[in-house]
Amino acid sequence: MPSEQQQQDFYQKLREKVDNWLKSRSGMVSKVGSYILVAPDLFHLLMKMMLDDRIDAKSKTMIGSGILYFIAPIDFIPEFLTGPAGFMDDVVVAVFIVNAILNKFSVDIVKEHWAGDEDLLEVIRRLTHSGSDLAAKVPAGRLAKRFIKL
What we know:
transmembrane helix; transmembrane; mainly alpha
């Protein structure tokens, strides 16, 4: 597991990359900008939940898979080819995982680790609701629906 400092460094770099992209011309016209904006916060949430002793080993296996998906250099929409828009599939996978965790554990446990500016439940509700169509189009979303179960 990465150290606390390594986690923070990755989170800050990811946040900076997304912020810079959203300020760029391609980020401003992107239809997925609002989804990409929460990618760093979802990654941070997964990392913090992984370290929480109240979450069981089976759930941590799923959380760990989400973390690995975030940091994998090659996935269904690789960031090195598409820039921050490539985090769309990572967000879809993370939302499925967080939603599954919220259905199994107290909301307070999960909210405790949320670093985002918006309310966690509102973010998950918005992304789940509007992301259903996107998840059906993103290969990672179809895989997550099929294989991620608690």
